Each structure stands twice: as structure tokens, then as C-alpha cells.
Protein: HTH lysR-type domain-containing protein
Amino acid sequence: MASMMSFSNQSLVRRLKLQQLAVFERVLSCGSLLAASRELHMTQPAITKIIQELEEHFGQILLVRSRRGVQPTDFGLMLRNHCRTLMADLRYLADDLNSWSAGVSGQVVVGTLLAASAQLLPGAVRRLREMAPNVVVQVRVGVNDKMFPELARGELDVVVGLIPLHEKNPDYEHVPLYAETLCAVVGRQHPLAASRTISVAQLESWDWILPTSESEASHSVDHFFETLKMRKPTRIVESVSIMTNLGLLVDSDMIAIMPYKVAAKFVHLGLLSVLPVGQDIPFGYVGYTLANGRTASPATQRLLLSLHDVASQISS
Structure:
């Protein structure tokens, strides 16, 4: 089916329909025509017809079918990337239209990490709810290596967490809000919880909870142990899930490394104790990241204002 075809903006406007591109993107996201038909509430033959129409428009095969579903061809991969960008722009348009017609509404999709998930982001979401109660906030947890590409594709509006020190990609705009340090924490029941002084030998005898090796925080964790002149533990659980870490700390005698301002929240709630070691070791700057060249929706702009307000309280 491949052929030499010439395209222009006008020819694409005449040939293509938004629904066709939306269906194609959903088929690839779902991995099969059947799954996409269920999600879109369309018949499978109707979806097959739309894919065939797109292939005729472009003169290219878009999908390869197998027992495990469908896979995009090289041309299909290229088209999928443009479809994702287009779908993200349509979502921003919908947010603007909703905000224009209803005053304060829309949706914000936020990626977050441990450093912001306990205090900064919850505080900002509460403040946003006061200003714009009709805004829907969707929070996704992950690491920068996963979330930054999603931000670039428009699947996330903003990433809130530790600002990467070694990331110089011009596609992203990093906005630091406050400096953070590291600390070692345990559950209140831990034998070391009430200790005023602790030796390295005592620390080495326990299991630890550390950030995953691919997370931005791993560099600071290495510095933490170097500063204490302590070998990095080998009996570890790697996790950036705040709920998993809290569950392990409360129900076991493990030690975790945690951003100090995050730990302070759970100390105040009576769940954790901060050990008297390494509390002044730098962790980095907590803030948010946007995709360069993309205008934030009105709902996202309100969330960013809330982040700044809450950060000023945390750092004061």
C-alpha cells in the first residue's frame, strides 16, 4: 500500500476527521481492536473500517495484527505520536472552553513523587479546591524517567517533586520552590525511635527502605551514606510509594530515608520518629516541571499559583 504521496495542511483538513485519529490512538493504547471497541462503545467492524480509511488516506499500513492484539508499523508509530499531541491539545481546548463558559472548571493531570506527595501537593490541591471547586485533579505517581516523556506528550500537565539536578533537556521548564534535606525515619515502635545518639554500627544492623535506583533521589541517597561514612545497605526495599513506605515503617522495624519536610508531616501525626543523624544533608530543590512551548490551561495555572502559596508556607 505504501506510495509516494504529498500532503499539505489543507489536504489533511479535507481528508481527515478527528474521530478517526482519536480511534486510532485508542486502538494502540488498548492494544487490540476488541478492547478499543469496548472502551469507545463502538462495534469492532466500525473501528476496523476507520483504520482502513486512515490507511487509504495515507497510503500506508498502520497496524500489524497478531494473536496478542495489534502493533503499530513504523509509520503507525509516527502517526501515533502526532495523535497523542493532538488529543492533548484538544483536552486543553476543552479545559479553556469549560473555564470560559463555567467560570472555574476543567481538569489538571499531575505527576508526582515522594518529595511532594505528602505535603506540597495535597496542600496545593486543597487550596485549588477553595478557588475552583469544579476543577478535576488527577494525580499519577511515578519517577521522572516515566513522567517527563508523558509531560512532553501532553499526557501530564505538570510534574511536582524533586527538581532533577542533571537534566538539561530544553523541552522542560523546571521551577524550584524550596530546598529540602534528607533524614532517616522509623516507626514509633522501633527500638531506635527514642534514641538521642545513634552510631553507624547501629544503623547498619537494620533493613532499609530506599528510593528506586532510577529515581532522581538516588543520587542524594548515595551522598547521605557517604556523609555518614556508612556503607550503603544491602538489605533494602526500593520504593517511592509513600503509602507502601509508611505501611512498612509502622508495621516493621525498618529504617527509611525520607525528605525532612515530608517526614515532619508524619511525625506530627504520631506515626514516625526522625533519627538524630544526617538531618542537614541536602536533598535538592522541590518544585514543578512544565513542558516548554505549551501554554498551561487556566486550571493548571490555578494549581501552579496554589503550589507557590503552599511552598512559601512550608519554607517559612
In short: Residues 9-85 form a domain with the Arc Repressor Mutant, subunit A fold (CATH 1.10.10.10). The longest helix spans residues 74-102. The chain has three domains: 9-85, 103-177+285-315, 179-284.
